[in-house]
Specification:
By secondary structure, the protein is an alpha/beta fold. The chain is built from 17 helices and 26 strands.
Length: 565
């Protein structure tokens, strides 16, 4: 058994060299598996890649061809991915929640010649006219469903091309919060370097176990939750079901993971349902919970129970993709839960900054990743400006979109993130929000809606919120837990009319109390009650652009209704 405690530097920095290293050094170790399945060893993993590689060459594909991958998480997703990139093809991972139109757009724009797809998602491509797509392979069985141009090539016959560091490895179409997705071009060096540098944030060894449930087609899970653990011979387990509490809890009890990655929404839901709700039921419990000394004791006890529910072996729980709610982070810190914060973008493969478990500071995303330069461009008097980044992990550009590339990449290699931030002591990075989300107040003040949403989301009975500007005023669109609200009113044994009146009073009090916690320029004029959850990206960020353009929402809802009929 091999236990590495040093940083690995594949030579060259390619996914091909990374795969070769792992197969040579961890052959007998468990590699990938479903939670309830039997793990493939690294040797078996390599054998499947060899067989699949021969199939791809038999289809007449050559180095540089684009091969798309549309599938839910499974061991065969990982096999498909490494088969593609280790043979010099370019992988085009597609998010499972992309609509049929988005899938068609990606396949057409990327000119993908082959597609790996799971049975559950096959209806996304049925009937589509895709002239470039000649072959379809099912990820469930790794068998050919459509295609076959030239005679089959045996495992012994095909010759694997040499892959260079600056060769394109992936084109990732982001489903952003600001509109139409773009194809981010990432090289072998981009992805491999990011994976190697993750070791400086959290060491990993061949004895470690990952439980993976975020989409593998998202760069966050792809680089840090797949490439990184496989680089060091760790084991990765996948859920066969959606990551609900009912599926996660027994999986964690069985696998006893040492490392996991998550997005803030999951931990925020857990905190609200398991911690906050228990101490908001009565005046007495609310009084006790407000006392800092008692709160820390309560959090410490809750933290032990939480860690036990995660299997008891957890040493690293990475949170990234969006800003973590301040109260939730305070709970994690006081509970001594082994969380860490990361910040990055698809365009930076993805990690730019982060913290080790023992170095977290409330609401800070931490320090620049070793080898990455960060700067605050054109800061205002408070030191807030756009975050620019430079490093080996910065993308090559946007596929077939030089205009968009020139907008974000400077001539001397700086990438404009579009995020606003500032540096604290020791150059700790603090994120304020997206530049495009910033609202300019009547007196010219910058208003950061994310800060207001953090206050709203901490209120009792709130699930999630979004703050927008309408007619020169701030409007909060809020999704409430109406079921719990109505239960409270039922307990008062009021009739229906009285209940409606009490609900109106509650909403008025809610708005008044909310504004009491906000500064003058951040006052909310109106609260709109949402009747369904907000649409989100893969990293669970709300697609803001949909809710700042009401007509687009109406058109989208009409289209959904028509599709259901």
């Amino acid at each position: 058994m091999m236990f590495l405690n040093r940083k690995i530097e594949p030579n060259p920095l390619t996914l091909q060299a990374t795969l070769d290293y792992s197969l040579a050094n961890f052959a007998g170790r468990p590699c990938v598996s479903f939670v309830d399945g039997k793990p493939l060893t690294y040797a078996q993993f390599g054998e499947k890649i060899q067989v699949l590689s021969a199939m791809l060459y038999s289809l007449g594909l050559k180095k540089g061809d684009r091969i798309a991958l549309l599938s839910h998480n499974m061991p065969n997703w990982v096999i498909s991915y490494f088969t593609v990139v280790s043979n010099g093809f370019i992988v085009v991972p597609i998010l499972p929640d992309f609509s049929r139109d988005e899938v068609e757009s990606v396949l057409t724009h990327s000119e993908a010649k082959a597609l790996f797809i799971s049975e559950r998602l096959y209806n996304r491509i049925e009937g589509l006219e895709l002239p470039c797509l000649s072959s379809v392979i099912m990820t469930d069985s790794l068998t050919l469903k459509k295609g076959g141009i030239s005679p089959e090539v045996s495992v012994a016959e095909y010759e694997r091309p040499v892959v260079e560091e600056n060769d394109l490895a992936a084109i990732i179409y982001t489903s952003g919060t600001t509109g139409r997705s773009k194809g981010v071009m990432l090289t072998h060096k981009n992805l491999t370097w990011s994976a190697t540098q993750s070791f400086t944030m959290q060491e990993i060894h061949s004895s470690d176990t990952f439980l993976s449930f975020l989409p593998l087609s998202h760069t966050y899970e792809n680089t840090i939750g797949m490439i990184y653990p496989l680089m060091y011979g760790a084991s990765v387990y996948y859920l066969e079901k959606p990551p609900t509490a009912a599926a996660l809890l027994p999986a964690m009890a069985k696998i006893k993971p040492t490392l996991m990655l998550s997005v803030p929404l999951i931990m925020e839901k857990l905190y609200k349902n398991q911690v906050q709700s228990k101490f908001m039921k009565t005046e007495f419990t609310r009084f006790v919970y407000k006392n800092p000394l008692f709160r820390v004791i309560i959090h410490r006890i809750a933290g032990k129970k939480l860690k036990a529910s995660f299997g008891g072996n957890l040493k690293f729980f990475g949170i990234g993709g969006a800003k973590l709610d301040s109260r939730v982070e305070r709970f994690l810190k006081e509970a001594k839960f082994p969380y860490a914060i990361g910040y990055g973008l698809t365009e930076t493969s993805p990690l730019l900054a982060g913290t080790k478990v023992k170095e977290t500071l409330l609401q800070s995303t931490g320090f620049a990743l070793q080898g990455v330069e960060l700067r605050i461009n054109n800061p205002d008097k408070r030191g807030v400006g756009e975050i620019w980044a430079k490093g080996p992990n910065v993308m090559k550009g946007y596929y077939k979109n030089p205009e968009a590339t020139d907008e974000v990449l400077t001539g001397d290699g700086w990438f404009k993130t579009g995020d606003l931030g500032r540096f604290g002591p020791r150059k700790r990075l603090f994120i304020k929000g997206r530049m495009k989300n910033t609202i300019v107040g009547a007196s010219g003040e910058n208003i950061y809606p994310e800060d207001i949403e953090s206050v709203i989301d901490n209120a009792q009975h709130v699930i999630e919120s979004l703050v927008v500007e309408e007619g020169g005023f701030l409007v909060a669109k809020v999704l409430f837990d109406l079921e719990s609200l109505e239960k409270n009113l039922e307990n008062l044994k009021l009739n229906i009319d009285d209940r409606k009146e009490r609900m109106q009073q509650w909403m008025q009090n809610f708005t008044r109390e909310l504004n009491g916690k906000l500064n003058r320029v951040s006052q909310i004029k109106r609260v709109d009650v949402m009747d369904e959850p907000f649409e989100k990206t893969a990293s669970q960020k709300i697609k803001r652009f949909l809710y700042t353009k009401p007509q687009e929402i109406m058109n989208k809802r009409k289209k959904k209704t028509a599709e259901k009929k």
